[in-house]
Amino acid sequence: MRIGLLTEGGYPYVGGEARLWCDRLVRGLGQHEFDVYALSGSARQEALGWVELPPQVRRVRSAALWGEASGRSVLWGRRRAGRRFAECFGELAAGMTGTSGQLADRFGSGLYGLAELARDTGGLAGALRSEDAVRALESACRAPGAHRAARAARVPDLLAVAADLERVLRPLSLDWYDDDTLGAVDLCHATAGGAAALPGLLARHFAGVPLLVTEYGVRLRAHYLAGAGGAGEPGPSAPARALLASFHGRLAAETYREATVITPGNAHARRWQERCGADRAKLRTVYPGLEADRFAEVGEREEPGEPHTLLWVGRIEPAKDLISLLHAFAEVRKEEPRARLRIVGALADGARAAAYLDHCRALAAQLFPDEADDVHAVGANPVSFEEIGGPEAPDLTDAYAGGGVVVLSSVVEGFPISLIEAMLCGRATVSTDVGAVVEVIGGTGLVVPPRNPRALAQACVALLRDPERRARLGAAARARALELFTVEQNIEAFHGIYLEIVSHCPVRRETVDEAGEPVPFAHPAEASVPGRWAVGGVAGTAPVGRAAPLTPHAPLGPAAAAGPSWAARCGLRGQLGEVAS
């Protein structure tokens, strides 16, 4: 099977999101071939280069979603193409700004119209940032039925929106959709929503290639959270944010509508997808997988770690709410004077994260002044800030080995990888009830409300004082993680989904010989018989070769994957049985 793996800001680059799980997936499915189509997120990411690719990766095509787009408008001086662009972009803009339920169809019509225009003319880079695009946006914002925020947009807002749309829509102008690229794959697997899924939508539109969309962090949710702008920079205005949110919402809805299967990483992401229009019949939850062997030594030790140490692991940023954790630890120290707090993690990008770390250090120094036995000794603060690779935590497993209780204090969380790592290490956990935390913990740890230092402190004290309970919860957590959150279960799940999609929705291509001439009878007759067919004893819902929601949880054995025989379809099974007997 040939898979087109679609990524944005991740694999195969050394630094980026979803790099690890994509690499594990590709290496674990050595029986398949992979073509990687990567959208890079920054110049720094491209400068760092690629990871070492396994032999099953046949090719890598890349394009940049950062910086200025190269080239001028190829529509300049071509009146007919210019009118066509204005019509298609106007439809796209109308789908963004209106409130009617039928506008989703206009958004899709405009999107695919622009894709066809880009294929016919060679690209839209200049047109998408032209005055015609801004005029079309303005007309849509002033049209009857436009929502209130769109009507409030002014020229600077429209310019900002047009610039962002040009960046996200750059995949429309790529040469990735002919018979030698994405048109030649059996399945497109988008590793995120948004721009990463856009090439999959176009391959589906131009070549009928089925699309699988995996979201471990819902891209639309991340866009909403980042809507206020970057660290240290003024964010876009309220009208611009509303227009961009509407665009990303329409793109997500179109992606979910056209996808053959959608695989959220947890129930939290699944609820987001359903609210954004995903058909429940298409959804299959596939948990991310971690390498359990990496944590096996720590998880199988009889020593429970340092019994008086609380451990926090993660990326240091405001969403992790270390401020509440420090205030909670102040309450813990009143009950358990020997307790220590180790904060181990990497600093998130941006000046805002660095300022947040400085604020946390200052608060720790204020809450816990150096303690000394007498006036001639220097005290040690019970809170330490460490980095992986330092002398106190040379490796991630060393950090978990030294913790008695692992704490998560976030106010915003998607899928808590650090909790799964702690579970694989057999550590008891105290977490805030955000994101997919409860789904991951499953009763093997304590959960408290977010932004509640007193509740967090009480849960930590309860575990610090009860070593038997810590050991019991840690053992249960490790068993749960080994059952649900390993690389092996992740790879097996996707292998089954690949086979299921291709068996339901094969891509029909004309077979040619070395001279390029069609080969007669290259496809068996039964492969083209229309009608309904059954998989795993459950009736399908679509003719062969067309995309439709797959029957959830339908097992695929060898016979089911092959489909019903031509004799059964033609009603000859009984006659053939009589002849054979």
Automatic annotation (TrEMBL):
Keyword Membrane set for record: no
Domain of life: Bacteria
Listed transmembrane segments: none
Start and end residues of each DUF3492 domain: 1-280
Gene3D superfamilies: Glycogen Phosphorylase B (3.40.50.2000)
Keywords: Transferase
MF terms in GO: glycosyltransferase activity
Record-given protein name: D-inositol 3-phosphate glycosyltransferase
Organism listed in the record: Streptomyces spectabilis
Lineage: Bacteria, Bacillati, Actinomycetota, Actinomycetes, Kitasatosporales
